[in-house]
Amino acid sequence: MVSGYALVLVALITLLLFVLNRKKKTNVPGPPFLQGLKEFSRSVKSNKLHVLAAKWADKYGDLVSVNAVISKVVFINSPALARKLLSDPSTRDISNDRPPTYLGKVFLNGYKDIITAPHGKEHSQRRKLFHNVLKFYGEGVQGFENLMTNTSKHLCERLAKYTGNTPLVTEISGYIGWVVGLLLKGKDVAQEDIESMQKYIGIGNEAFILENEIFLESIPYIAQVPGFRLNELVKGFEKVDKEIDVRFLTSVRETFKKGEKTGIITDLLEQQNQLDKKGNFADMSDEIVLCLVKNIIAAANLTTAGTLSALILLIIENPKIQERIYAEICEVIGDNPPSFDHKRLMPYTEAVILETLRYCTVTPFLLPHYAREDIDFKGSFIPKGTFLLLNAWYFHRREDLWDKPWTFNPDRFLDANGQLLSTEHPTRQNLLAFGTGKRACPGESFARLRIFFILVTLVQQFRFLPPVGAELPSTNPENWETKSVMAPHDYTCRLERRSAAEAGI
């Protein structure tokens, strides 16, 4: 009976929201109301909204509107329009908010983070502090490189112990988690910390998919109704969220009190001390420290693991691409450990990474934006409170922007001389894997460096081959598992040590 009452109440609230939402209408084209609502609801439930949005983009154009009753949504289906909307002085201050979310409101202490927080002074200040502690300049880059060099040796040693099919996806996910743990806590990180992070990511990846967020934000009491899957997920997330609080702040504070600086968290606490001396403790409160740490845990693990899982699957299925990467490694690096300085000398490897970001688009809509006020944009009216979804899944596959977009082809990012296209080249401008404007991902350099280093280290040491007695998942992203991040289904593969292979042993 509880579930029945809940559904009736959902219907009543939906009707009320529909009446309220009729006050202002957009002139952006889109499907008729009932048809759009029906198709939207089905696609959200099956986690295939990106597929439906691509169909609507082909039919209605670069901007598509749908009234989903609970919210109004506009899909931006052109990278040029996305850059214009989010970066132009006339619209950037009202198009760079985030929509309200249950995750941000309940588990990120009322949006005291970077990812879910509304655009404004506090958000900009947090981004600046975040960049300061990441230290992606000078000695900070060198320290990160040393960390990657040392930990990658252990990864290769682990992988070399397998004699048959190797659970590569599991190993890489665990490795990325360990690196993130070391960055956050330094030498004090423990296996229990990594396990807590993995639980946090795993439950969050399922709990806060779009369908669940829509219900949780609109009707938050659903999370408390026994018998609902959402109730189980939210309870599980509450438990692991508290574990993260203890393991990544309470325990680290004791280290910090001893005068030790071991990682990003102690750097955040140092920033907190400095601000406190100026009477600005609220700018880096414990709540903010924890929220920034949780942003790093989620973003640094999910997208990197998904991208690398897809990339390695693609080079197993395209061995010529794999061998071209290896040939470039031999020419530029030889038998030496890779370094970040090598990155600019390896245009083909960089092109493979860029093409992976395009072809896979592991976050089909990137992160949603939100209209803070009514927006008049290139003759279109977008009402206040509209969800703005950057349809990267579609515009990374537009046939008028990409030649044979469903073909994995790294050469599209190289010029006639085999050099990487400049960032201002139209092809590079059509790639928006990390967003654009004021809300572009602040960890883009961090992510791309990690992907480069892991890929080069692994291909330098191993040849990746199909598994024996098992099948690889599809390389077509349309068939991949879609949660908060889209990635291939788990798979195994065979590894052949390069040293033995090249010697003909």
UniProtKB/TrEMBL annotation:
<keyword id="KW-0408">Iron</keyword>
<dbReference type="InterPro" id="IPR036396">
    <property type="entry name" value="Cyt_P450_sf"/>
</dbReference>
<protein>
    <submittedName>
        <fullName>Cytochrome P450 2D26</fullName>
    </submittedName>
</protein>
<keyword id="KW-0503">Monooxygenase</keyword>
<dbReference type="InterPro" id="IPR017972">
    <property type="entry name" value="Cyt_P450_CS"/>
</dbReference>
<dbReference type="InterPro" id="IPR001128">
    <property type="entry name" value="Cyt_P450"/>
</dbReference>
<keyword id="KW-0560">Oxidoreductase</keyword>
<keyword id="KW-0479">Metal-binding</keyword>
<keyword id="KW-0349">Heme</keyword>
<comment type="similarity">
    <text>Belongs to the cytochrome P450 family.</text>
</comment>
<dbReference type="InterPro" id="IPR002401">
    <property type="entry name" value="Cyt_P450_E_grp-I"/>
</dbReference>
<dbReference type="Pfam" id="PF00067">
    <property type="entry name" value="p450"/>
</dbReference>
